[in-house]
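Please supply some protein, with fold tokens.
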Amino acid sequence: PDEYADGEHWDDVDYLLPAAVVRVRVDLLYQTASKEYIDFLRAEGGADGATLGALWDDDKSPPERMATARAALIDVAYLPLVY
């Protein structure tokens, strides 16, 4: 969404997967600073902002993996228990 309600800090997204998919892996990535924030600090932060901007230009704050989840998407037919 373009905006979040007060106290909301997540996004729910549904993905349509092809029928042939049997496994998924999801990585949660976090980028410590966005380009827009660095540009703001570079423009408004004086010498420290300029230094931060130069550091950003070097490595761009690559996203860090925070968590990974895996799941098997296999349809299993369960037979009734027979005693």
Summary: Residues 31-72 form one domain. The chain has two helices and two strands. The radius of gyration is 22 Å. The mean pLDDT is 86.
